[in-house]
Amino acid sequence: MADIESARTTFGKFDVNGDGFVTADEFKAAMAAMGDPFVTGPVADAVIAAKDADGDGLLSFDEFWASLNK
């Protein structure tokens, strides 16, 4: 099981605008900032979609946390 405080810190790196959700664009930009320029738009869309439990196209912290604890 992941540490929730570490997970919140990591989630915050992706949630650039601080609205509580990570978009595919935010995910792509964060990955590039962390040194992975190979995450394309379609890859980012697929990653968000795979973890997006409610199908709204956004990754909430609860969805992120749940994906860490699978």
Write structural notes for this entry.
This is EF-hand domain-containing protein. InterPro entries: EF-hand-dom_pair (IPR011992), EF_Hand_1_Ca_BS (IPR018247), EF_hand_dom (IPR002048), EF_hand_pair_protein_CML-like (IPR039647). Residues 2-37 form the EF-hand domain. Keywords: Metal-binding, Repeat. The chain contains four helices and two strands, in the order H-E-H-H-E-H. The mean pLDDT is 95. It is mostly helical. Helix 2 packs across helix 3. It has a two-stranded antiparallel sheet with strand order 1-2.
Helices, strands, pairings?
Elements: H1 4-14, E1 21-22, H2 24-33, H3 41-51, E2 59-60, H4 61-68
List keywords for this structure.
70 residues; mainly alpha; globular
**Helical amount:** 55-70%
Mean pLDDT: 95
Rg calc: 11 Å
Number of strands: 2
- Helix/strand/pairing class, anyone? mainly alpha
Number of helices: 4
Largest sheet: 2 strands, antiparallel
Q: Which geometry do the CA atoms define?
A: globular
Strand order within the widest sheet? Answer: 1-2
How far is the N terminus from the C terminus? Answer: 8 Å
> Please, what is the oligomeric state?
single chain
Strand content: 5-15%
Write down the secondary-structure element order.
Answer: HEHHEH
Runs in which pLDDT lies below 50 for 5 or more consecutive residues are none
